[in-house]
Automatic annotation (TrEMBL):
Secretion signal, residue range per the UniProt entry: none
Listed InterPro entries: ANTAR (IPR005561), CheY-like_superfamily (IPR011006), GAF (IPR003018), GAF-like_dom_sf (IPR029016), GAF_ANTAR (IPR012074), WH-like_DNA-bd_sf (IPR036388)
Sequence intervals crossing the membrane: none
Organism, as annotated: Streptomyces hyderabadensis
Superkingdom as given in the UniProt entry: Bacteria
The ANTAR domain, residue ranges: 168-229
Keywords annotated in UniProt: Kinase, Transcription, Transcription regulation, Transferase
Protein name: ANTAR domain-containing protein
Record flagged with keyword Transferase: yes
Gene3D superfamilies given in the database record: 3.30.450.40, Winged helix-like DNA-binding domain superfamily/Winged helix DNA-binding domain
Entries under Pfam families matching the protein: ANTAR (PF03861), GAF_2 (PF13185)
Entry annotated with the keyword Repressor: no
Length: 243
């Protein structure tokens, strides 16, 4: 089944239909070009795949509770993640994601009037960890307007789905890093060639000059190389004029 047929699948897939839905979702996820594209696709698919889900978003949570939105299906979700009162976690349950891969909020109104989700009319939330290190978490959260929307079945589907999202996100990140590395290599090669001609030195001397200038000016090698190339092509900027 082609990934483009995903929208024709049952709203709440079970059994073999679930396997088909996850396969189609994986195809769409792995067909994305960048991590941002992967996350945007993931939140759209999450609403389609997870039973009762009405909204979805991906957020990065830092130690201390600060966070930012990375992808969202609508502005309601963006405000849920980045409330106007400072950008801290909307409810204390999210702190548990440092020690557990899944957190379910059955009814945000049970936490009182101060809960950001409740204020946005979002009664239920299912948060699933995508990535984790010492400093930050990446979390996919599905939301619903009715209480107790997400049961064990929804949690199981969510965990299967986020496994695919995590793999696709890792692949997209590696591709992006490799692409950037190739661009950086080409840029440094161009800058080295310019310095060889300008300073009448060999490749090793030109590269050494570039490294020394980078250290002296406290500028990344890539950024300095771009500056030299831009200056040489007449687009402005300063280059390296001495060894």
């Amino acid at each position: 089944m082609a990934a483009s047929e995903f929208t024709d699948l049952p709203r709440f897939p079970v059994g073999f239909e679930l396997a088909e839905a996850l396969t189609a979702a994986a195809c769409e996820l792995h067909g994305t070009d960048t991590p941002d594209d992967t996350m945007t696709t993931a939140v759209t698919l999450a609403v389609r795949l997870l039973p009762e889900a009405e909204h979805a978003g991906i957020a990065e949570i830092q130690r201390g509770g600060r966070l930012r939105s990375l992808a969202w299906t609508d502005e309601t979700v963006r405000f849920a993640v980045e409330p106007r009162q400072g950008g801290h976690t909307p409810h204390p349950d999210w702190e548990r994601l440092w020690t557990t891969p899944v957190v379910r909020t059955d009814d945000s109104e049970a936490d009182g009037d101060g809960n950001v989700l409740s204020g946005l009319g979002l009664r239920s939330a299912l948060s699933l960890r995508l990535r984790a290190d010492r400093r930050r978490l990446t979390v996919l959260t599905a939301y619903a307007r009715k209480p107790q929307a997400f049961d064990e079945d929804a949690t199981r589907v969510g965990r299967l789905f986020t496994a695919h999202v995590s793999l696709a996100l890792d692949s997209a990140t590696v591709r992006e890093q490799l692409t950037e590395a190739m661009r950086t290599r080409d840029l440094i090669g161009q800058a080295t060639g310019i310095l060889m001609e300008r300073l009448d030195i060999d490749a090793a001397g030109a590269f050494e000059s570039l490294v020394k200038a980078s250290q002296r000016e406290n500028v990344k090698l890539r950024d300095l190389a771009r500056r030299i190339v831009d200056a040489n092509s007449g687009t402005g900027g300063r280059g390296v004029t001495e060894r």
